[in-house]
Design goal:
Blueprint (H helix, E strand, L loop, with lengths): L6 H26 L5 H18 L4 H22 L4 H22 L5 H9 L7 H20 L1 H9 L1 H6 L4 H19 L8 H13 L5 H26 L3 H38 L17
Helix pairs in contact: 1-6, 1-9, 1-10, 1-11, 2-3, 2-4, 2-9, 2-10, 3-4, 3-9, 6-9, 7-9, 10-11, 10-12, 11-12
Length: 298
């Protein structure tokens, strides 16, 4: 295939594959906690790290990782201790992160509006070999946490009080989810961009939930959808010459609509199957006669 003859497209497809796996892997826990927009907030904060990387002439990806992790910890602390003004503090953190990133990029010599656009909306064809090393390391960390601690993370996301009673370190696990989400944002920002990364965390999970019931099936289906849309979107963006991030997200939304349309017929089929099984599996036989000794005399 022509697309595989170019080194930059080979890197692009590998990066897309990795992001397609890692984003839904952490996204399923965010959706379970009803924090679907957390990735969007972390993306705003991570932009400050990108700008700081350009200003200090260091790796923007690694600097964005550090800043995003710090921002995710602050968000979690606000969630724990914030009272009536917690939402206001989060809003200032989000928008301050975006404003800080734009300001720092403009102050740096290497920063420009073109560089800003590649990090905001993704530019998968510009992924360098150095970026690939970073993506490999961070993606491995994300998968070790999301798969290795899936039982504990699921318990915390499902019911924090029950998890606390069973002896799980609830706050530590919540903090781990936030930090892992921050790492995933920086892994995916070169593929779909900081402004669209939350969509890749949430939409595949939402689509999988339309047709599956168990956590394991939802997890596997969401990862499959993530891989399918990232690879398809990357390939389509190469041939049609359109932005990869927007293409990937639109493919994900299209699959969500398709899965939603399939959900109702599948639910009716399951209901008919359950009714048939219930009707045929329980029968009551009434004896035609009974012995005389079974009569009760008063």
């Amino acid at each position: 295939m022509e697309i595989l003859s170019y080194a930059f497209m080979q890197r692009a497809l590998i990066a897309a594959l990795i992001v397609g796996i890692t984003a839904p892997a952490i996204g399923i826990y965010l959706v379970q906690r009803r924090q679907a927009l957390m990735g969007d907030g972390i993306g705003h904060v991570a932009l400050t790290g990108v700008g700081l990387g350009f200003l200090l002439n260091s790796s923007p990806v690694w600097m964005a990782t550090v800043v995003a992790v710090v921002g995710s910890v602050i968000m979690e602390l606000i969630r724990w201790y914030g009272k009536t003004r917690g939402d206001l503090a989060l809003a200032m953190l989000f928008y301050g992160g975006m404003a800080g990133g734009v300001m720092l990029m403009n102050l740096s010599d290497a920063g420009s509006s073109a560089n800003l656009g590649t990090y905001l909306f993704g530019s998968i064809t510009t992924v360098s070999p150095q970026d690939m090393v970073t993506i490999y390391v961070l993606a491995a960390l994300v998968l070790v946490i999301t798969i290795g601690l899936r039982r504990q993370l699921f318990a915390v996301c499902q019911d924090e009080e029950f998890a606390r009673v069973t002896g799980l370190p609830v706050r530590l696990l919540n903090l781990l989810i936030a930090v892992t989400a921050a790492v995933t944002v920086t892994v995916a920002m070169r593929v779909v961009g900081l402004l669209l990364v939350s969509a890749l965390m949430v939409i595949p999970v939402a689509a999988a939930q339309q047709i599956s019931r168990s956590f394991a099936v939802t997890f596997a289906t969401a990862v499959g959808i993530g891989v399918a849309v990232t690879l398809t979107g990357t390939t389509a963006s190469y041939y049609v010459d359109v932005p990869s991030g927007a293409t990937i997200v639109l493919f994900a939304i299209a699959l969500f609509i398709a899965f939603t349309a399939l959900a109702a017929p599948l639910a009716r089929r399951r209901a008919r199957t359950a009714a048939a099984a219930g009707g045929g599996g329980c029968t009551l036989e009434v004896p035609g006669s009974r012995p005389a000794e079974d009569d009760v005399r008063v």
